[in-house]
Amino acid sequence: MSSDFVPSAPPVQPPAVAPNGNVGRGALFALATIPVGVAAWVVLWGFGFIASLVAALVAFLAVRLYVLGAGRLSRPGALVVLAVTVVTLALAFVGGIAWDAAVAVSEDSGMSTWDALVEPGFWSWFWSILPEVLPEYGGDLAWAVGFGALGSFATLRGAWSASAAEQPVVTEPAPPAPDAPTTAGTPD
What we know:
The protein contains seven helices and no strands. It is an all-alpha fold and 188 residues long. It is elongated and about 95 Å long. The protein starts with 22 loop residues before the first helix and ends in a 23-residue tail after the last helix.
């Protein structure tokens, strides 16, 4: 009787998963946070509020949209979420100042605030006066930064912690199995 010894196939490696997910797609999805965050901020600003709630919602939405696009939150993803949150809140603050300027134009001209915003010369006029009026908004800016940090801190810290926990552990690959001798047709 003969026994044939056939070496086993090498172990099957799981398919490689991108450790960072699809960062570009996640960033693109997270950018949708900007118009939503600016609109929410300007609405509350119009009522006279600077709310940390908007900053918290902006950070939360940026994380959720990033994960929806990328598949997972990685360290680069957490940086993208942080950048999107900061840019959104900065643009929202400028949007609030633009709203105040549109209200002032509407009061002087008798047109509605929305009409002032779409008036052809409004935006060129606004950008020309912004450096002059920005110092007047120093206190509001301080409040906005404080409330923005307060509102988004927990979400951004959680995103940063989750991305650190998700980092893949780099291990050395297992050495290949030594070639086993094949014995075929040996008599018993």
